[in-house]
């Protein structure tokens, strides 16, 4: 499966890594495992088992947050408001 890249001439920072074996992963919890000036480690778990981790530079984490907020807003316009809160 080919991973489409919106910008046909991306900078090295923008290049997408093609997915060779895309899989849907379902998780019921996500958390930030560590923070530093250089990286943020996001962990995704299903029950007590961490199933995937992603490491972002803080600027990329912020971009991810902004894109996620945009997509959630689009979803809510189409499907209604999502009512939720952070777990305690």
Describe the structure.
With 88 residues, the protein is of the alpha+beta class. It has one helix at 58-79; strands at 29-35, 40-46, 49-56. The longest helix has 22 residues, at 58-79.
The number of helical runs is 1
The helix/strand order is EEEH
**Beta-strand content:** 25-35%
User: Can you give the mean pLDDT?
Assistant: 81
Major sheet: order of its strands? 1-2-3
Largest sheet: 3 strands, antiparallel
Regions with little confidence, pLDDT below 50 for 5+ residues: 1-7
Work out the number of β strands.
Answer: 3
Query: What best-fitting shape do the alpha-carbon axes yield?
Result: globular
Helix content: 25-40%
- The end-to-end span amounts to 39 Å
- Rg computed from alpha carbons, rounded to a whole number of angstroms: 16 Å
Oligomer: single chain
Structural class: alpha+beta
Write the layout of secondary structure elements.
Elements: E1 29-35, E2 40-46, E3 49-56, H1 58-79
Short précis:
With 88 residues, the chain is an alpha+beta fold. It has one helix spanning 58-79; strands at residues 29-35, 40-46, 49-56.
Features:
single chain; 88 residues; alpha+beta; globular
